[in-house]
Specification:
With 355 residues, the protein is α+β, with helices and mostly antiparallel strands. The chain has 2 domains: 91 residues; 242 residues, BirA Bifunctional Protein, domain 2 (2-Layer Sandwich), CATH 3.30.930.10. The chain contains 13 helices and 10 strands. A 7-stranded mixed beta sheet has the order 1-5-6-10-9-8-7, sandwiched between helices. Phenylalanine binds next to strand 8, strand 9 and strand 10.
């Protein structure tokens, strides 16, 4: 039955199955069905034995041609499927490297940390060293050595967190038996510690965290940061203090911002002053932040009181000095127009990402 029509339909049928195979696994099944032992073309070959000897050779050639044609069609289809499968695999394995940069945003230092570093840089540029002291402080350093004996009414200027003194405290240290411990209410105790260990001349700034038992509001925090300044040398005058504050103000806030001093009282300086700077938001014209005055209060200052020098054994006949202290958080607030200081403590990532 190896007539031409039968062979033609076997070839056509075979080509159709080959074209219909969509994957290499399907094509392997099709190959077995089209050319394998149970395939119609194999049956044709087996039937050759019964063919008349004079037609056998020609019939064999026709069968061989069909096998060759189907083998070629299979090879072509195999190549085509392999190409498609490779393209699909590459698409599935593709990594979009351009996404990585956005997916991982880098963090940065907190605005208060950065402001503190910039303040230190400014004062270092003016010839000051940087010093530090402890946040848990003894009553003596925080108050007594600063000319505020026990029961001095000026202690009321600082609402203080008191700590339980440890029973086994060592003499001369914060926590000496029976001596009250406080969370320091300002950085002024570091003036005392510095003068104790460094004889004048001394030029230093002392930044750090402070605590007050205040209810936080838009302009006050109960945990906040101050930077203290101290200069003790021969012949230091109030003019040096005013000049230093003005130089610092212009250097840190910009040339259009100036400082002014207004009489005030602190137990550890005499005379004492409050210092204010031109409101950097309205540049002195008056706005909500400065309550229409054009000025913003930054901190206190004055000439070091002789009683403070006496407490650390410095001869106030020979040496004089000035001191100042102001809020680092307040500087960050003014410089970056932060309406409410409390955002500095809240750790809200939406705020932190902006500043
Ligand atoms: N320690 C004062 C305060 O916290 C500020 C100050 C520092 C005033 C140094 C005078 C001299 O309010």
């Amino acid at each position: 039955m190896s007539d031409t029509a039968a062979l033609a339909s076997i070839e056509e049928e075979g080509r159709r199955s080959i074209a219909a195979a969509a994957t290499s696994a399907e094509l392997r099944d099709v190959e077995a069905a089209v050319l394998g032992r149970a395939s119609p073309i194999a049956a044709q070959r087996r039937s050759l034995g019964q063919a008349a000897p004079d037609t056998r050779r020609e019939a064999g050639q026709r069968i061989g041609a069909v096998v060759t044609a189907l083998t070629e069609a299979l090879a072509e289809r195999r190549d085509a499927i392999a190409r498609t499968e490779r393209t699909e695999r590459l698409a599935a394995e593709r990594l979009d490297l351009t996404e990585v940069h956005d997916a991982r945003r880098r963090g940065h230092l907190h605005i208060v940390t950065r402001t503190q570093a910039e303040l230190e840089d400014t004062f270092v540029g003016m010839g000051f060293a940087v010093a530090e002291g402890p946040e848990v402080e003894s009553d003596w350093y925080n108050f007594e050595a600063l000319n505020m004996p026990r029961d001095h009414p000026a202690r009321g200027m600082w609402d203080t967190f008191y700590l339980e003194p440890p029973a086994d405290g060592e003499a001369g240290e914060p926590g000496e038996a029976g001596e009250p411990l406080v969370l320091r209410t300002h950085t002024s105790p570091v003036q005392v510690r510095l003068l104790e260990r460094t004889p004048p001349p001394v030029y230093a700034v002392m930044p750090g965290r402070c605590y007050r038992r205040d209810t936080p509001d838009a302009r006050h925090l109960s945990t906040f940061h101050q930077i203290e300044g101290l200069a003790v040398d021969h012949g230091i005058t109030f003019g040096d203090l005013a000049g230093t504050i003005e130089t610092f103000t212009a250097a840190f806030f910009g040339p259009n911002i100036h400082a002014r001093l207004r009489p005030a009282y602190f137990p550890f300086t005499e005379p004492s002053a409050e210092f204010e700077i031109t409101c950097p938001i309205c540049e002195g014209n008056g706005c909500r932040t400065c309550s229409g005055t054009g000025w913003i209060e930054l901190g206190g200052c004055g000439m070091v009181d002789p009683a403070v020098l006496a407490a650390v054994g410095v001869d106030s006949e020979e040496w004089t000095g000035f001191a100042f202290g102001f809020g680092i958080d307040r500087c960050a607030q003014v410089r970056h127009s932060i309406a409410d200081l409390r955002v500095l403590m809240e750790n809200d990532a939406r705020f932190l990402a902006q500043v």
